[in-house]
UniProtKB/TrEMBL annotation:
Signal peptide from the UniProt entry: none
Biological source species: Alkalicoccobacillus gibsonii
InterPro entries hit by this protein: UPF0344
TM regions (residue ranges): 12-33, 45-64, 70-88, 100-121
Protein name as catalogued: DUF1516 family protein
Keywords assigned by UniProt, alphabetized: Cell membrane, Membrane, Transmembrane, Transmembrane helix
Length: 123
């Protein structure tokens, strides 16, 4: 993969993460306050961002020749996406029991950010 293609995947990956976190917060607040404003549109946008993240992440892992650190980061990212989905679904249906998933979300987000920015790695 050439450098320009890799840069495109990288920017898509970073941008989709930023947008996903913003939309996750907005949709969570809308569900919490029981506001039906554009919920389906936001859910669709979140799903599109999931697809963009996963495909760009796989492309970057392929470009890096599958280093174990980034493979682990990808798996933890899938756990993070799962936690987001459970939090949103339980909040939408007014069910309790999201505290464990919030813990998983915070821990997974911290690990993904640390691995994504190479904190503590000797590279």
């Amino acid at each position: 993969m050439d450098a320009q293609t890799f840069l495109i995947y990288y920017k898509v990956h970073i941008g989709s993460w930023i947008l996903l976190l913003i939309l996750f917060g907005v949709l969570f607040v809308l569900y919490k306050w029981k506001l039906p404003f554009a919920n389906r549109i936001l859910r669709f946008m979140i799903w599109l961002l999931y697809i963009g993240q996963v495909t760009s992440g796989i492309a970057m892992i392929y470009a890096y020749q599958f280093p174990i650190t980034y493979v682990i980061k990808g798996l933890i990212s899938l756990i993070l996406i799962y936690a987001m989905e459970v939090i949103l679904r339980k909040t939408k249906r007014n069910r309790s029991g999201t505290s464990a998933y919030w813990f998983i979300w915070f821990v997974a987000l911290a690990i993904v950010l640390l691995l994504g920015f190479n904190v503590g790695m000797n590279t």
